[in-house]
Specification:
Layout lengths: L9 H21 L5 H9 L4 H18 L3
Length: 69
């Protein structure tokens, strides 16, 4: 089954983008290519409270999956 992501509503597209950003930042942290404050800086750039919460949940998920403390 093929899913066309471009047909998703804007809020769903944004959730996917935030999840990708969280994954990438945690990966960089694991590989010692980033420092923890970069995640905080990215989180602080998110204006919408729900989106910020989604980003925090995604960061926690990827930290758990990648074994990053």
């Amino acid at each position: 089954m093929t899913i066309n992501l471009s047909k998703l509503p804007a809020d769903e597209k944004n959730k996917i983008e935030l999840d990708k950003q969280a994954s990438f930042l945690v990966w960089k942290l694991r590989e010692a290519k980033a420092i923890p404050s970069e995640i905080i800086e990215q989180k602080n750039k998110i204006a919408d409270e729900q989106e910020r919460e989604w980003f925090e949940q995604s960061v926690a998920k990827y930290k758990r999956v990648m074994g990053v403390m």
